[in-house]
């Protein structure tokens, strides 16, 4: 019997970082050999990306045995995993910019929160995050750390108080998104065109449009394209 996994309701802003600024991503960009993406002075290697994609696919196979189906589009695992890997670098940068240092206890608190969410969906945390959000199980510790960083950041932005109105919460979310954007901009991230490009509208790595197709069918009346918009830092 199949079990439906509810997409994680986590407060992790994977779309508001989740996902921004100053990421230079274009077909003409220069990426270090063997790198899927460059973030600041470090890089995400193609080898590590491949390993994590394999980890995700292994989780999918295990999920299937238990009747749990992926909730994210299949065939996009490489872009989905690279999105997470970049996201965690952005959160570490934001923590460094604001002097945030989280404790094991804070990370454990985030883990318990997500475990409770998974339990409500009647699945394990691994199933919840792999099937629900295309997160490789090996990266769960990174998720807990990022969530703990976000919790501290949100508390600061809210002046140490919990927002009591939707307007106040929206204001905090907007400030958080801006700080995430500045953190990403500070990293000067470059994505290898082989793996796609960074979409700031959805804060995710997406498949780059085919330049061959574009050359074969030029637009008779050029208009502002979607690509420059999504490649432009919003902050």
Brief synopsis:
This protein has 235 residues and is mainly α. The protein has helices at residues 46-65, 77-97, 104-120, 125-133, 140-157, 166-187, 211-216, 226-231; strands at residues 35-39, 42-45, 190-191, 197-199, 204-206. The longest helix is centred in the last third of the chain and has 22 residues, at 166-187.
SS summary, helix count: 8
Q: Tell me the fraction of residues in β-strands, as a range.
A: 5-15%
- Biggest sheet, spatial arrangement of strands: 2-1-3
What's the shape?
A: globular
**SSE succession:** EEHHHHHHEEEHH
Structural category? mainly alpha
> What is the helix fraction of residues, given as a range?
40-55%
Summarize model confidence as the mean pLDDT: 82
Characterization of the model:
- A hairpin with a 4-residue loop joins strand 4 (197-199) and strand 5.
- The protein contains eight helices and five strands, in the order E-E-H-H-H-H-H-H-E-E-E-H-H.
- It has one domain (35-212, 224-231).
- It is mostly helical and 235 residues long.
- It is globular and about 45 Å long.
- The strands form two sheets. The protein has a three-stranded antiparallel β-sheet with strand order 2-1-3. A two-stranded antiparallel ribbon has the order 4-5.
